[in-house]
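Re-run with default settings, no changes from the original entry. Doing this only to confirm the output is reproducible before filing.
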Amino acid sequence: MSNMHRIQWFDQQIREGKYPNSNHLAQQFEISRRQAQRDIEYLGISLRAPLLYMSKNRGYCYEHPTYVLPLLYMTEEEKQVLKFLAFRYRHYSYDNASAVNRVGHLLSRFTDEQHAGTVTDRLPVFDAHPRLMQNIELLSHAIQDCLIVQIVYKHPEEEATRLGICPFRLMNHYNGDYVIAFCEQQHKQRIFRLDSIEHVTVTDVRFERTIEPVGWEAGGSPVRKPFIAAVRLSSPLIGETWKGYPAQSMGELLYNIEFYDIDSFLQHLLSSEWQQVVAPKWLRTKLQGRCLKLLAQLNGEDES
């Protein structure tokens, strides 16, 4: 949950005349009192709220009741874009690197991470392919929960190879994106380039992180929104993702699943358990075509 949601709650408490303070905020959202105080300082300094502490009531009110919070609503799609940009800006190491890095930390503040900064320099522009964004999202989930990942990796002019990896960290080097991981087949740590990973499948198998990764020191904007598939699963999900893909419950085992890369998600459907792909129709058609092609190959029939 981001600090913006907490600030909206704090603002509402003030307007209801409840004189909230850092203790109230900390207890409501189960955060530290220090973090709650930083949220209040952000409301007063960055959002310029006319906060006034009333000793008699041991809480805050607005000195000018006409104050209105700026528009803070952000969709999940916009958060995903900001997460990608925050990752790229935090690892930028060229002209005006320190200023650009501060922008990365500032963007992280709006994506549930607590960093801040300001900058006035011109920013670089990064291009983002949907598959690259999808790989970063899935690998980030696997790194956070220490989950083994199956990848299809293809070097230039070589055949694709299926590998099992234990991902440790995402990084950027010379404007390329990489993941540091332990490769199970080769029994050693490797660095994989993200744009060479053709497919990512996050498994349910956890690994124990006993070593620190070694590797390089880590020092246009994506505009495409994710596709949404309505999928009825075989069992309820625990958490807000379906093996790395963001999922929103719609009731009765029906979930809205977000994805960027069509081929990767089709492969995920072929290797996962589910009951029904409800929508969209074009996804069902593509999945049916993929299944018919596989069936024809199994039967030794002509693809046409």
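Residues 222 and 249 are 26 Å apart (CA to CA). Residues 113-126, 216-224 have pLDDT under 50 and may be disordered.
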